[in-house]
Amino acid sequence: MVFLVDVRLRYSVFLIISDTLKEVQMQHGSKNSFMFTNALTRAIESKLTKLKHEKIKDGVILEAVDFFLEGQGAMEISAHPTDAQASIVRSLVKVVLHQVGASGSYDLSEGQENLLISLCVETMQVESVSERCDILRREKSLTDAVEQGLKYGFESENHLNSGLDQFCIRFYCCSSPQQMRRPPDRIMEEFDKIDIQDDTENDNDGETLASVNPALEALYISSGTLSQARIQLLPTVEYDGLWEALHFDSNIKQKLFSYATISLKISQFSSKTISDAVISNNKLLLIHGPPGTGKTTVCRALCQKLSIRYPQNDLGTFYSTDYRALIIEISCSRVFSRWFGESSKNLDNIFKDVEKLLIENTERGRFVCLLMDEVETIASSRSSQINKNETTDGIRVVNTLLTQLDNLKKYNNFLVLATSNLVDSLDTAFTDRADGIFYIGIPSEEGTEKLLTSTIGELINTQIITSSNGVEKLKEQEIKQCVTAIAHRCSSLRMSGRTLRKLPLVCLSEFLPELPVTIDDFLVALALSVQGHYKGNHVYPP
Predict the structure, then answer these.
(1) Which GO-annotated molecular functions does the record name (predicted)?
(2) pLDDT tens digits, 69-81
(3) Cα first-last separation, the chain
(4) Whether this model's pTM surpasses 0.85
(5) Which of 259, 297, 299, 310 has CA 20 to 30 A from 440's CA?
(6) Nearest-CA neighbor of 254 among 375, 343, 410, 128?
(7) pLDDT in tens, 205-235
(8) Helix orientation angle between 110-120 and 11-28, rounded to the nearest 10 degrees
(9) Domain boundaries in the chain?
C-alpha cells in the first residue's frame, strides 16, 4: 500500500531549525538542509512502519504522540518556546547533522527519533492511494494488453502489491490564518458609485493590501476585486485537516487531485508551448451537485493539498517560510452591478488582477487557483437568456468570462475550480472548456456513517463528549451499531453533508445544554434529533 503523508511542522520550531541550518551552512558550507530533511523523513517512516494498519488508514490525522511507541525521549514544547527550549532544538539539530553527516547513513536511536518528531511535528495527515496497474507486465504483448484493456476496462487492472508499505512524505507549515475577507456591504455600495465615474479618477492598480492584512502587503490588487473576492495564502491553518474530514462514496477526491496535478504538470512538462489544436488543457474543473454536499469545501481542501504536495517537496523546505499558493474565491453574485454594462467590466477587472498575480508568482514557483462558487450566476446559458428576452448584460458577462478563461490558460501556474448547483443551466461553451466534470451527491449510508463517526471523534477530542478510552470507544461493537443505525436513518431522510454537520449542535442545544456529556447520552440525543428532523420539529431547513 502507498500512503501520502503530509507532515505539518510546528511553526515556532520551524523558524528555530531554519535559522540553525542557515547558521551551520554558513560555518561549514555543507548541504545540511538535505541531511536534516532526510533524517526527519526516515524517523517518521520508521514510526509509521511500526504502527498498526488501523492507525494509518485512509484519511486519518495523526498527532505526534501517536508515534511515541516506546514513550522515551519525547518532549512537549510550548507554542512560544522559551530560551531553554529553543536551545534544546538548536542542539538537537546540530547533533542530528553531526551524527548523520559523520556516519554517512541514518543512525538515530528510538529516543532520538521520539525527540525529533515531538519537537518538529504538529500533525500528520495520511491518505492511501492505489498502486498503479500494470496490464502490460501480465500480458504477452502490447497488442494483447490493449485488447484486454478495451475488453474489460477497469476489471482488467492488476494492482501490484509488493506487500510492503511505502510512504511518500511531504513537509509544510502554517504560521497563522492569513486571509483577506470581503469588506462590509457598504464598501460594495461605494464601489457601485465609483462605477459611473471616470476611470482615471479611481485607478487602484498601485494599491496594496497592507491596510487590510500585512501578510498580503506584497500583493497588488484593486479595491474593486477586493470587494468581490476572498484571497487566501496557502497552506493555512484554516484549511488544515479539511481534506481528511470530507467523506464521499467514490474516490472523487483522488480523481480531483489527479486531474488538477496532471493539468498543472502538462503545462510545465515541455519547454515548448502545447498546441491547443492538439491537446486541450483549459485548467478548468467543474464540480456540481445538490446544495450542501461539500462542493466549495472540497475545492478549498484541494487547493490546500496542492499547495502541500505540488510542486514536489524540495529539499530546501527548512529554508522557506513563504507561502506556496494563493486561492482567489470569487463571489459570483457580487460581480453584477445595478448599472447596465458594469457587470462585465467588474469581471474583466477581476481577471486583470488575477493575471497580475499569475505573472508575479510564476518565477517564484507558486500557483494561483481561482475558485468561482455558484458559477451559474455568471455562466448561464446565453441561448436561454435570449429566449427569455433578458437584457444583454448577462450575455456580456458570459462572453467576458469565456474570453478571459481562454486568455489565462496560457499560464503554467493557473487553475480554475468552479462549483454549480444547476449544471444544466450553464452555457455549453463553458462546460465544454472543463477538463473534468465531477458530480458530488447526497452522502450514501456508508458516507453518512463515516461523517458521523468523524464528527463524534472530533467532539471527543475536544472533550465536549466524554469517553472512558477516548476515540477508541468508537470501535466498540455497541457504539458502532448505534452509529450505524443513526446513519441508516439519516440516509433514508437523504440528509446533505451540511445538515449532518449541523446535527451535533442541534442535538446539544435541544437535549444536552450542560457540557461535557457522555457518549451514551449524546448518541441517544442524536437519535432524537434525527427523528425530530423527520417530523419537521427543527428550525433549520432539511
Answers:
(1) ATP binding; ATP hydrolysis activity
(2) 555 667 778 778 8
(3) 40
(4) no
(5) 310
(6) 128
(7) 444 443 345 555 567 778 888 888 899 999 9
(8) 120
(9) 2-172, 179-270+278-439, 445-535
